[in-house]
Amino acid sequence: MGDERGHPGPASRKSVPGLPRRLAATAGALSVRKELCTWDGCSHVSARSPRTRPRASGHPEEARAAAISKPTPTPAERSQRTAGVTLLLPNPNCLQVLRVLSKLVRSEPRPRGMAAPSRAATARPCVPGAPACQRRPSTGCCGRMRKGAADGVCVFKCSLNGDTECCCVGKESVLISLGYHSALLKFESHAEFSAFSNTLKRCRREEKEYSVFSQRTEEASAAQYFQFYGCLSQQQNMMQDFVRTATYHRAILQNHTDFRDKVVLDVGCGSGILSFFAVQAGARRVYAVEASSVAQYAEMLVKSNHLSDKIIVLPGKIEEISLPEAVDVIISEPMGYMLFNERMLESYLHSKKWLKANGMMFPTFGDIHLAPFSDEQLYMEHHSRANFWYQQCFYGVNLSSLRGAAVDEYFRQPIVDTFDIRILMARTVKYTVNFMDAEEADLHRVEIPFVFQMAQSGLIHGLAFWFDMAFVGSLVTVWLSTAPTEPLTHWYQVRCLLQTPLFAKEGETLSGRVLFVANKRQSYDIQIVALVNQTGFRSGNTLDLKNPFFRFA
Fold first, then answer.
1. Residue 18: what are its φ and ψ, rounded to 5°?
2. Which of 127, 149, 402, 505 could bridge 389 with an S-S bond, Cβ 3.0-4.6 Å?
3. Contact indicator for 156, 26 with CB cutoff of 8 Å
4. Based on the number of CB atoms within 10 Å of its own CB, is 3 exposed (0-12), middle (13-18) or buried (19 or more)?
5. Domains in the chain with CATH codes
6. Which residues contact residue 336 at a Cβ distance below 8 angstroms, ignoring those fewer than 6 apart?
7. What would the pLDDT profile of 405-445 be if each residue is shown by its tens digit?
């Protein structure tokens, strides 16, 4: 029984065989008779026939059921970023719902100029529980469909832009205003709801424009950074670092009580290896957040290891995504050269907004160590690199006027390599960052004062740096060290040369400071000032951590 317009009444909708209760409710909501738009080049067609219409089931009403097109958009409307919203039936056997929808469509009068309904297209649903969708450059809409999933049938499609009004209803629903009408989208789980919310935010660019990450990072630097970590070769380089991978595995597995039946957040998951460790330790659910394109490979690993019910890959930046729930433990590998490079530590600290009270962080705190060193060979090597510019007849051109600038540039480069600990001239000074207490702003400007009691006489050519990380669990505390006395890691050690060496005798003191100033290139400018207290001689240097010299090759 229907209304005066011929719409099926509640009894008619309830009697549709095979129609899930949730979709019946959706079908009822669709009786708002909203004309919905489609996008050019964005019909989600089955992979079995990507350029053809889906095979009709034989029912004439089913063939006519579809998403409805709205009038041709103006150029201003086309310029707006849009996000696709598609509701899908779980499989083609549930086509009965289309009979209801087709009646609604046919009986609704269309405004003048409104395009006729297009034919329904069979589609693969987006990945449930993980926003695996990516915007197509041409349309800005949801383009990647779930691979290997059962075919579904599109019953509802609309476009969203920055002017669309929408809000959350409860924990698993979104209410969208479409002109004079509204649509209530109900999701099966928090994960699907979170996936939709994250995709919508990226498409509308509301979070991107105002996120902490975008404010502190140049767009070109971010693009280069995520392209680099999107390569499997780089992921392999990190995974093959035995000290790194084995230490994380030991820290998580030996503190299994901290992970058993807990919700875990993996920040910058990369290949997802730490997420797998968390599941091995008994985690109930892991949210693996990754902003680079390697997220798609992490999703493939999760599926091939049959852990889709445990690990949910969320593509996006931790500063911009939303989680459906708070977490008990945060795991990450946020360290760069000299600990601070790449500014990933700030993202790690930012993720604490999702951490429950009394939650845990792995790693828990980090120590950066520094000590003066003497290395005449290294110092002369750096000077000799600039000798190329000392040539007075390079194919008839005098280059010598640039030698001074070349020396300054080379000395601005921190040197990434390893060394014999015997070149160190004093005991180290340690600076600790406690991730449980620190805030993001604390890492914008890091000042490390030092006073060294010289253990031997000689020329001081610079300062050497390395770091240790502590994983403080309920059962054991595990350490990851990059010290020159420990097995080598892919972080090596870093040395910063002084512009002019300083001579100091045994027993004298060398004092000064190292200042790290964050920049928008996801790195730091380093300022070093050093003074031999007994003689008054001082030296220093300014270095660019974004542009190190890799000497280990």
1. 75, 5
2. 402
3. yes
4. exposed
5. 10-51+58-204 (no CATH), 218-333 (3.40.50.150), 366-550 (2.70.160.11)
6. 342, 343, 344, 491
7. 999 999 999 999 999 999 999 999 999 999 999 999 999 99
Token pair 């995520």 is found at 226
Residue with tokens 């935010």: 201
Alpha carbons 165 and 264: distance in angstroms, whole number: 32
Q: Tell me the per-residue pLDDT of 63-106, one tens digit each, with 9 for 90 and over.
A: 444 443 444 544 444 434 444 454 444 444 333 443 444 444 44
Cα gap 251→241, rounded to integer Å: 16
Assess whether 490 carries a catalytic annotation.
Answer: yes
Give CA–CA dist 250/469, Å, rounded. Answer: 13
Q: Tell me if the pTM is above 0.70.
A: no
Helix, strand, or coil here: 484?
A: coil
Please state, in angstroms and rounded to a whole number, the distance separating the CA atoms of residues 387 and 381.
10
Which of the following is catalytic: 61, 77, 218, 241? 241
Task: Name the one residue in this structure whose structure tokens are 């540039």.
Answer: 409
**Known active-site residue 342:** yes
Distance, in Å, from the CA atom of 266 to the CA atom of 287, rounded to the nearest integer, reads 6
Encoded amino acid at 449, one letter: P
Candidates 61, 442, 490, 508; catalytic one: 490
**Choosing from 342, 375, 440, 468, which is the catalytic residue?**
342
Query: Which residues are paired to 168 by β-bridges?
Result: 174
Q: Are 189 and 172 in contact (CB under 8 A)?
A: yes
Query: Among the options 62, 207, 320, 333, which is catalytic?
Result: 333
Beta 263-267 vs 285-290: how paired, if at all? parallel
Rounded to whole angstroms, the Cα distance separating 127 from 198 reads 13
**Contact between residue 54 and residue 123 where contact means Cβ atoms under 8 Å apart:** no
Verify cis geometry, omega within 30 degrees of 0, for the bond prior to 92: no
